[in-house]
Amino acid sequence: MKKRNRDYQAEYRRRVERALARGASRSQARGHPRKGEKPLSKMKSSANANPKLDNSRADAAYRSMRQGKSLTQAAKEIGVTRERLSKHLISQRLIRKRKNRWILSGRNQPPMLIYSDAKAFYIRVNAKNARLIGQYLNAVKNFLKSGDQKHLDNFLGKSVLDKSRVRHVFETRPNVLFRLHLSGSARFEDIYQFSI
To answer: In angstroms, rounded to a whole number, what is the distance separating the alpha carbons of residues 104 and 74?
Structure first.
């Protein structure tokens, strides 16, 4: 049996014309309804069939975006479509669009790991303090690798304010830092505490 050559352009044009004749918008006719418009097709798209992402994959994608990767790259890394990932992160208010670019929502900075008062815990901070905590944790990591206390010198007596205006002094006592590290109460890979 001879294979029939399909004219996809003509089929698409007819589909759009039929939908417009039924009173649908052009975006609905194309199969990509705008927000608030109902899809014309009764078929469920793969993105809508299972809208929830498991937390570990969503965390990994969000972490990649925080490290400077695009939404497309982050979605590719965890094996989902860009649309599905963006829908999930928007619903969690972790990203928003500005001037046709996806950006991380600053006010939803996830809690960050800090060592203070002989404890490891997470606090919410503004961007400036988040940068300082990142530098501190990097110094602690270098100290734990080398045993050289000079890495901690810049943070002696320094502190940060959390979002509740509570001050947390950086822990710089070597024995306490070694104990916290060996206890496994917090790892450097878990610098952010995600709740998505």
So the answer is: 13
- In DSSP notation, 87-100 reads HHHHHTTSEEEETT
| Long-range CB contacts (within 8 A, 24+) of 126-131 | 126/163, 129/160, 129/161, 129/162
- One-letter amino acid of 105: S
Its pTM stands at 0.47
195 inside domain: no
For residue 117, is it left (φ>0), alpha (ψ between -120 and 50) or beta? left
Scan for tokens 């590719």, then name that residue.
76
Please write the tens of the pLDDT for every residue from 40-50: 876 655 444 44
Do both 151 and 177 map to the same domain?
A: yes
119 and 184 co-located in one domain = yes
Contact yes or no for 115/152 (Cβ under 8 A): no
Domain that holds residue 172: 112-190
